[in-house]
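Hey team,

Filing this mostly as a record. A colleague (T.K.) asked me to run one chain through the structure pipeline before their review meeting, and I want the input and output archived in the tracker in case anyone asks later how it was produced. No errors, nothing strange. Just documentation.

Input sequence:
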Amino acid sequence: MADVTASDAALRRFLHGLPGVDAVGLEGRAAMLGTRSIKTTAKAYAIDLAISMIDLTTLEGADTPGKVRALCAKGVHPDPADRTTPRVAAICVYPDMVKTAKEALSGAGSPPVHVASVATAFPAGRASLQVKLADTADAVAAGADEVDMVIDRGAFLSGRYMQVFEEIKAVKQTCGRADGTSAHLKVIFENGELATYDNIRRCSWLAMLAGADFIKTSTGKVAVNATPPNTLLMLEAVRDFRAATGVQVGVKPAGGIRTTKDAIKYLVMVNETLGEEWLSPQWFRFGASSLLNDLLMQRQKLSSGRYSGPDYVTVD
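Output structure:
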């Protein structure tokens, strides 16, 4: 699809030529999939799968090395009383905390808990490209396995699609290391600011064309973050992109997913839209902080028959 990105005009024609989103149909299907009932053995499997897909996150101005180290310890052993509990997929922090997280996770064994770093002037993305690339380079140099960048929503909403495309490409290149490896790039849209489903579909294709390894709903810092309809739309986009190009891209809903019931609804959507192949931390993640505790409480209930309550999980 190189001809699609050959010029600003070609890219615009392609993005605006994508089928319009049937909002009623999209919301109806998301609601229908949310009614599926998952019980007993299937529920236990879903809980463990959801835990293994979490990017356990702390992105606060008050973050300290001690808090990050504690979060890393929780990511490796979410339930210290039950070592059969899966590890989370990654710990997500600001770039200046990447080194602390890498040191805390060194020697933690297998499967590895990756370190993800937000970058590109997260969460607003209001900085020059030079600053954004420096932010990304700092995170990669500190050892980040994954980089979560934010797009320039102002440029996208102004119709400057090629500017956004080139920025994503430049960040992707900056994720590369001298040894030939590269940090995986997750591209955050901030769906709540994109305003329409059509924009979310266009942004999904734009990011994937630019080389995103994952597309991500939101920063968790605005009023509207991940929702079942906007996540379903992105799942459909990665399905269609692979059918057109042969390239598989992951999806990460983030912000507002707090309960086991919510997480299972998202897993059902993935299974029904993309199939079991995408039901893996390699292709689907939850950006969350409080979700893990609810999953642990529900897991304890399934194993013991009793609901333990929040006093039996650590406060993040």
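Quick notes for T.K.: Residues 165 and 206 are 6 Å apart (CA to CA). Strands lie at 54-57, 90-93, 114-119, 146-150, 184-188, 214-216, 250-252, 286-288.
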